[in-house]
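Thread: Modeling a multi-component assembly for a lab meeting

Hi all, long-time lurker, first post. My supervisor asked me to bring a structural picture of a complex we are working on to next week's group meeting, and I have zero experience with this. I have the sequence lines for every component (542 residues in total). Could someone generate the structure of the whole assembly? Inputs are pasted exactly as I received them:
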Amino acid sequence: MHSLFVRNYVFCAPHNLVVEYSLCSVLRYLAYTHNPTILSMRELNDQELRRREELQLLIQRGVNPYPYSFDRTHSSLQILEQFCDDAPEQLANVAVAGRIMALRRMGKASFCHIQDASGRIQIYLRTGDVPNYDDFKLYDIGDIIGVRGFVFRTKMGEITVHAQELTLLCKSLSPIPIAKEAHDEAGNTILYDAFADKELRYRQRYKDLIVNPHVRDIFIKRSTIIRAMRQFFDERGWLEVETPILQPLYGGALARPFTTYHNALDTTLYLRIADELYLKRLIVGGFEGVYEISKNFRNEGMDRTHNPEFTMMEIYVAYKDVFWMMGMVEQLLEYIAVTALGSTEIVLGSSPHTTAISLRPPFRRLTLFDSIYEYTGEDIRALDTSALHAVAKKLHVDIDAQAPAAKVIDEIFTTKVQPHLVQPTYITDYPLALSPLAKKHRTHEGLTERFELFINGQECANAYSELNDPIDQRQRLEEQARFRAAGDDEAMVIDEDFLHALEIGMPPTAGLGMGIDRLVMLLTNQESIRDVLLFPQMKRLG
RNA sequence: GACCCCGUAGCUCAGAGGUAGAGCAUUUGACUUUUAAUCAAAGGGCCGAUGGUUCGAUCCCAUCCGGGGUCACCA
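Re: Modeling a multi-component assembly
Sure thing. I ran the full set together rather than chain by chain. Output:
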């Protein structure tokens, strides 16, 4: 019976050191690491065992596999840019470092490619030229090395560092996915066997970033986009602020929150669903332009465009209204596109199904009712609730028979108009009932001063002339409270302190929210939010 | 939450009711300018998990886990 649970492994280490150990299914795994007696919870595959063996050999040869630093003189890109065939002596003594990504051994000489943050460069190693060439035989793809040497161009024409010193900077104990690169005649890079399993890519993003260069590019671009946005705001004198993530009351959006608990305060706290109410308090407090780029959390479904935590930018500017905001957003998007992409013209999708989009201002402006008339032929601005339901039915818009008028309008718009809004389009003049924090329209009864910006059929931004009439605001929140009491758990809760702030007095203010993740999706041509989040939310394993 | 598709070697993928296949990666040997290096040989798998049908299941069925997609919900 005992033998059922024990598998014997004999492991031949170098220098006649024989290590024998058992793998017991009760304890699960016994791993050979620096110390062969250490227990590991994970069974090691043959490649991992072999790498540990190589590690031991290197240590026995006096090599420190995890040294403390390495002085580089150049990045791989700098070498490629600076090399000059007529004057190779200018790069006669360079030091580069990076991860071994490809390895071609030819006995007494070897080529490898190392990868650093700027790209890849080829290394040439030759016995005699590198004192520790024998150690190199124990290096693997995935190891990080430092190389000192001179730069030359090979027979095949590739700029290469001829190594004279070789230093192991980190021994990799687990293999990275191998994706071979080739280049066609046009100079395009072809990837063979690319690391493509989405689950593994998201869960082990570090491997994804090592192996898939275009993934790095997306996140570099994301950073550029956010930096450009900050620059744009900072240049205009608006202040970046930080407001609470943990909130005793949540507000500013219609959404279900995450709930948590603070032990010392003995109280329930919520993770914020929006920054809005705190940022408006700051406008009350006398700041005249504040913005925040921050994580919001909504306890809702996940799909291609929703992650439970996501990044939102909100900005509030005093003495401005929603019409001013439309102009500002046009400038902002143009600035970001030019800074991050070099152009206002973007192409979405992949050949042959592409969509060209221009972010060049001005954007089209259309009222909600006009847009519905344009795309359905139905003029619904004067209709009552039952007539609206009749129109919805005629348009084959599926809607709950009990839905209020505003909900019917919203549904008609979402299904019949929104998909057509491919080029940047401002939709304005939303019904009051859909906009509990927006100021009443100055000329149209029952509407608010609000716009949403649509690009490629998706909402990209949402803005109001902010409601600063505390009595009106209280009535609107009380209505939300009634919805809530009637079972709508996404309706807003009454925030007395926010209402008190408005009673102190908030100047006329324009406010804007813009989803950063979706903006990045748009500007990097990604169809899933998970591809613009470094670590998207995933289900827990096992 | 509903429906559809997927889960096989480190990676990318074939496969078939009867002892598991390829390329790359890995190991051994050859090779001092290669580049998807090449040539020769070898090792590597609880075929996502559990149960059922069957003489026999990785394959068929059910349930579960994980992923992708569509829809619903949600800005």
